[in-house]
Design brief:
mainly alpha
Amino acid sequence: MQWILGIALAAAVFVILKQWGALSAEKKKAATWKVVLVVGGALLFFMVLTGRIQVLTAAVAAVIPLLRKLPALLKYAPALNWMFADKRQGGGAGQENRQSDPASELSGQMSVREARDVLGVKAGCSEEDIVMAHRRLMQKLHPDRGGNDYLAAKLNEAKQVLLGKRKA
């Protein structure tokens, strides 16, 4: 029985790969979703037949706590998207902010608008708001807590720019 299933699976993979090569790029994208659904369904069917459905139940139980944290993590998505947009778009969002302040463009420093965006504070906020926003983000993005050096440096630079402009 196992040999028959193995041969049938090998034949199915061969046919699918042969047809895959003839598809255009647009059709490959649509076909990818169909393949994922068929393979997922076949895997689920196989697990039910062999009595291993408890593995799937355990996997779902392990993912549920992660899904509960997802909304909390998604509120940081715009900030991370903004930070990495400069690399993806070849100077997109980050460059617009730097062009608004020619002095910061020449010196290579962060503009006040960019610093406010990084820390998530509004124009005219108090010094205490800046310090609290920096502390809150640094607790989440510090390298010792799973963040990275780049993000921590950006947070420190943003705090320095905003507090430095207030003292001047």
